[in-house]
Amino acid sequence: MLGGIDKIPCPCKTCRNMNHQTFDVVYEHLVIKGMDPTYRFWYHHGEEVPVKCMFDGQPFCSSSFMSDEKVDEPCVNDDVNEKVKATNDWTDKSFTSLLELLHDMLPPNNVIPKSTYDVKKFLKVFDLGYEKIHACENDCCLFTKENKDLETCPICEHSRWKVDKRTKRMKRGVPTKVLRYFPLIPRLKRMFQMHDVAELLTWHMNHKNSDGKMHHPVDSVSWDSIDAKWPDFSNDPRNLRFGLATDGFNPFSNLSSRYSCWPVMLVTYNLPPWLCISKENIMLTLLIPGPKQPGNDIDIFLQPLIDDLKLLWDGVEVYDVVSKSNFNLRVVLIWTINDFPAYGNLAGCTTKGKTACPICGEHTHSQWLYHSKKLVYMGHRRFLPPSHPYKRKKSWFDGKVEDRQVPRIANGNAIDTQLKDFQNFFGKVDKKKRKRQKELKGMWKKRSIFFDLPYWKELVLRHNLDVMHVEKNVCESIIGTLLDINGKSKDGYNARKDLQDMNIRHDLHPVEHESRVYLPPALHTLSKLEKQLFCKRLYELKVPDGYSSNISNCVSVEETKVMGLKSHDYHVLMQQLLPVVIRGMLPKGPRHSITRICGFFNKIYQRVIDREIRLCGPVQFCWMYPFERYMKTLKGFVRNQSHPEGCIAERYLAEECILFYKNCVQGSTRLDDKQRRNEEFNNDIILEGRPISTGKEITLSDEVLNLAHQYVLFNTKAVEPYIEMHRNELILSNKRLANDDTQVMKVHSEQFPIWLKEKISLDVGNRKDSDILKWLANGPRKTAMSFSAPPRGFHELDKYDENVDTSFVGDGSSLVLDDIDDEFECRNNSRDDCEGILL
């Protein structure tokens, strides 16, 4: 017992079991101050709390641990104290000093804790804890269940305990590797004890799409298929649907360290779209320790989670605070979200070699490049319609006519049948047996542990390939090839020799003369000046504050290199900036190809064009961005670099307790959300942001006014009916426009502002939103404020020239492409005299 054997927690009104006193002092406190009326069950003194108190219809914490009587007005709640400490990364010593100061400043008999220890002891009441499970050093097994009492691994026979590197003696009681498991079932029960959260868990029931668009995974085919196959599951909207994501990260600030820690996270798709993948609702379930990644042996570490998921499929009894009744909670894991290497680890398929495609499987078309020493996959024309002209274009592709059929995609039942008798060999010691099994089953390395879930083989989509990593790799290869960056370019002597072996693209074959080799320039090859211009455009890029990182920090104009960009920076380049940056620098063919690739990724993020998107819903619910950001948060939890996983686990528990305390305890003080930069600045002219300099009023040209007016009109919801009405009138009045969409859009853009103004002036009295429409139809004013330096905030530009006036009219940012100097011209013999407006 804390405090010594002669001391016990004092249950008086002042101490409230937070201070340990002797028996005489406790007796004196109870006689003078009285008993704490909220201390109903004497759990601090050995009494077991009845299970029913967890389901009494009220948050148990508010009735058992918090008093309704008022304390001194200046007093601060413990959750606020701990939240401030966690947010500002205060040390225990500095935080204790602050608490002592506050305690002395407040009136006597205040209940503010005196130390960090007291705060942690109070929050421990709400701590659900985690399990420490010993694991084999070689990832062969977990020391649980039948292996619980073993001293050595039953597979590789390595010791369970750590060996001192200096003395070579075994440290009994100190395991070599510890898996931390945060039990899932207690956390799900807690979700239904928070009233606000419990209400939102049924949001999906009444928010199916009604406009034909996909807003949430509830609108996906996967969701509907679960409803159709298991109607008893879908009958209760409180049953939960989870997505699982995992990836490795380096928990240290030292980038040279190869330590890899793997968190396994769950997200709840029952919640609204603005909450289901937010940081507060990402649930950490497993923390797989390093220093090496688990690889194919990740199934060993997933066993505790899979056991709970199997139990939750049958259901567990949970109390719902909204309906004030118990119900049988069931859970289904609908898919996983991973990059390609982790995809292979979880699905059990190979991601390398001749059968690397998890969709095509045994029908993957691969080709070995002798000089480049790698496999490439060039059979994509099979997926085109049979009459598509590309299928007959030999010279454009691999020199062959494509007449094969689309490969059949194996479903879960077929894969489960195929791997029914597959014997898994886990661990990083015995490789020979595993290799023989791999050759026996082709693309499969193991039978995934997810097939132990009763419903897994019936799901239409089991694993999501993260588009974030794919987009980053594609953009990195494009930029590396354009700038001919060593190690990043896909063009070179070996690539040209492979073209020669394939007998295609004869104009690119290397020319060998004596001991020298000449590589003919390709259409995408840039000169030294063009490379510098490309880098200069990226260096002088102007984007709004928060739009991306400062890309100019990653660009070297002199060395013509782009390095150190993050995944989101590549995302921004592929979505909007790259087609603008290469404008006028490349011939039509490669320029259009790069633009179309960017357009392809742009459509993936916006529209339903692919099988996976139809199956899983909008892409933002199936990419790794929120999980990568969350792993950055976990990385910030590490204080003791000797035990990174322990730091992460303890800090996560503290954050979890604070979140529950704030949501559960009635009358709890809530901290406001972090305010965005410069939001406190108010100005009638500048809607968002803070100006750096004193502005001056200017008159805008008619061209700028027309562009701004058109943008506002075409992006305002109230104007949408009029947009469609004007388009229909144009097509009916001129039959030539009916077959030419480009000409329709051109005429529509030019004439719509004038037409709308006339239309609104005629029937404005019949419209309930006439004031807004009349205001929009009249157009913007001709004057605007101009600043020598841009406003900080939403409109802040990361890079700007103080000598150039920048006018801000409406939303948006500009990317100004400098003119190419007179001493050289672009390939298309046209100067780059353009300004791209990102609206």
UniProtKB/TrEMBL annotation:
Signal peptide: none annotated. Residues 610-678 form the DUF4218 domain. Residues 6-47 form the Transposase-associated domain. It comes from the Eukaryota. It holds the Pfam family DUF4218. Transmembrane segments: none annotated. InterPro entries: DUF4218, Transpos_assoc, Transposase_21. This is TNP2-like transposon protein. It comes from Cucumis melo var. makuwa (Oriental melon). The lineage of its organism: Eukaryota, Viridiplantae, Streptophyta, Embryophyta, Tracheophyta.
